[in-house]
Amino acid sequence: MKCSLKLTTWSASAGLALALMVSATVAAAIPFETEAVERVRAAIADSVRQRMGDAANVTIDVQSIDGALGTGALLATPEPGARTGRLIVFALSGQVDGKSLRRIGSATAQLTVVAPHAVAVRALSRGTVLAAADIGDEAGPLVDVPLRALALPDVLAGGRLTRDVAAGAVLSGDVVQPVPLVRSGDLVVVRARVGGIEAEGRAIASQNGVAGDVIRLVNPDSRRTLQGRIVAAGEVEVIHES
Question: Which of 141, 153, 176, 225 has the most CB atoms lying inside 10 A of its own CB?
Fold first, then answer.
């Protein structure tokens, strides 16, 4: 009985100690895990808005995270062909030991994106040149569309359908060949923002594009290459210099 009592007493004490250790471990792990998920979610949200516009409201369900993420800022890059409403693999990049960005992991997530977008008001066949009366404007969930800038009705009018669409279908860039706002060889207005300062100049477009597209530009004086996002007909905002 004494032996049993000792064993019982030891077991109870050990069990309590083990429970406390487990509780302490869980308490320490949960904030770290939550922080990692939130960092990944923020990086994915930034990535989606850069591609689909600031008006996009993104809900992100992170399914898995792989890799050592460190503590610095993260950059999330979706896999080619990624579409809303599907599981998407994002490559995660970050700085390690103060060095330039490099791949440090990956995450899988499912996105719900709500944003203003254009829809077909009736069933339309491939090859149709869109008129203003064919296009409606909605603000709701985007299902099975690519992570790309969404063209609004005034941009799509005059574009040609590349496939049949049903009434209510989203008129995204993969079903409409829009009229370019900038064509290769055009002399365009370019604006660059640094802090609160905005500079304006001229550059020559090296590619065709519509609103939201990132195209190459050439400075006609220095012959330096720029990259910019088309914001309107003949107007481009510089986002990177190389």
Answer: 176
Residue 153 burial class via C-beta count within 10 angstroms: exposed 0-12, middle 13-18, buried 19 and up: middle
Tokens of 140: 């709701």
- Judged on CB neighbours under 10 Å (0-12, 13-18, 19+), 29 is exposed
Rounded CA separation 213/229 (Å): 5
**Type of residue numbered 236:** V
Compute the distance between CA of residue 190 and CA of residue 235 in angstroms, rounded to an integer: 6
**CA separation (Å) from 84 to 37, 89, 108, 145?**
20, 12, 13, 5
What are 179-208's pLDDT values in tens digits? 888 999 999 999 887 767 788 899 999 999
pLDDT digits (tens, 9 = 90+) for 24-57: 333 333 344 688 899 999 999 999 998 888 888 9
The Cα–Cα gap between 191 and 236 comes to 6
Question: Distance (Å, rounded) from C-alpha 212 to C-alpha 155?
Answer: 11
Strands 235-241 and 187-194: parallel
* CA-closest candidate to residue 58, choices 43, 71, 69, 79: 43
**Rounded CA gap, 210 and 238, in Å?**
15
Q: Are 211 and 149 in contact (CB under 8 A)?
A: yes
Burial class from Cβ neighbours inside 10 Å (0-12, 13-18, 19+) for residue 26 reads exposed
Task: Answer yes or no: is pLDDT of 145 > 80.
Answer: yes
The residues, ordered by sequence, that sit 6+ positions from 133 with a Cβ below 8 Å of its Cβ are 121
Put simply, whether the predicted model's pTM sits higher than 0.70 gets the answer: no
